[in-house]
Amino acid sequence: MHDPPKRVNQTESNVPPTSSSNKNLLLSPEGDAFQFPTDFNPHEHRPSNAAFYEERPETTIFSETSKEQDERIRKASPYGHLKTWRLIKIIVKSNDDVRQEQFAMQLISQMDQIFKLKKLPLWLKPYEILATGQRCGLIECVSDALSIDSIKKKLGQQAKLVDYFTRQFGEKSKTLKKAQENFCRSLAAYSLVCYVLQVKDRHNGNILVDIEGHIMHIDFGFLLSNAPGKGIKFEQAPFKLTGEMVEVLGGVKSRSFKEFRELMRLGFMAIQEHADKIIKIVEMMFMGLNDLPCFVLGEDLIGALKDRILPHKDRSSKQRRLMTELEATQFIDGLIQESYDNWRTKAYDKFQLMCQGIQ
């Protein structure tokens, strides 16, 4: 259906191309290097968060973890003694088109597979969604995570996201550094998801932070071409990147922020390389279920998706092509600059606070 685009001569970039000798080394435009663990394997099962359970501060936001909750309910269950006993947590949704949620999760799962294929330490949390009808379905609960809105309300008035990290993980601890690293890697991954898929309605009730510090997004009722507001499009930034999020990273001049930029570049180049895998899913779904709200723009949304993933064209053939490393760096930095503390993003958060009390 689509010929895979070709990457132009990498020697045009002043950033060294990836090789077997430096595949774990990230280089920012300023020349600062980031070294990822050489034994990183994205295909391994993600480690349990047991380390985050143990010796957690008394001021922790999570008074009970999902593991502890399972054990408590199992002890009270008359079937708890059975070896096959298991507690499954799901949300039963009605009067809501879960088909679009399931479609969005297919795309997110595909992007997660692309990151793993390229062995990038980007973190996404695909979860199970099953549409049982046009207006109903089942959604897996995300364990050990709270919305930013819930966290702020638990912390009290004027609380900021960075306050959660210091209270949950302690100040200047190894656990805090690991949580900030988790936040950085997940923030970069979900920023790419929100840009490529144009995920909207990103208020703080739809963004979660888990017990390990990962950020994650839920509720995909608006993506690709539809948006809340009935024509008034508040959210026009490429993705949501608030001052509070950057503060968790340590500020725009911090090493973590530079790592965030570089992870976004690497992730975007991986998405470009495997663009067909994402585009074909959207095309097939459009042909079979074009009544989904996300297809309100019609066939034009396919072209808009291609423009976001592969915005550059070859001068002679006019065919879409992959970016060089330098071009990708400049492109991603432009997206970040446009998104960072965007006034429209802040206006939408203010609107949600005034209308629905979402902090």
Helix and strand topology:
Blueprint: E1 25-27, E2 33-35, H1 50-53, H2 66-76, E3 90-94, H3 98-117, E4 129-133, E5 136-140, E6 145-147, H4 148-155, H5 161-169, H6 174-197, E7 207-210, E8 215-217, H7 243-249, H8 255-273, H9 275-288, H10 300-309, H11 325-339, H12 343-356
Antiparallel strand pairs: 1-2, 3-5, 4-5, 6-7, 7-8
Helix pairs in contact: 3-9, 5-6, 6-8, 8-11, 9-10
State the gist of this model:
This protein has 12 helices and 8 strands.
Adjacency order of strands in the biggest sheet? 3-5-4
Sketch the major β-sheet.
Answer: 3 strands, antiparallel
Named at the architecture level, the CATH assignment of the domain at 141-356 is Orthogonal Bundle
Q: Report the portion of residues in β strands.
A: 5-15%
Count of individual beta strands: 8
Distance between the termini: 45 Å
Secondary-structure-based class equals mainly alpha
Keywords: Kinase, Transferase
GO biological process, one term: phosphatidylinositol-mediated signaling
Biased composition (Basic and acidic residues): 41-50
Domain PI3K/PI4K catalytic: 67-344
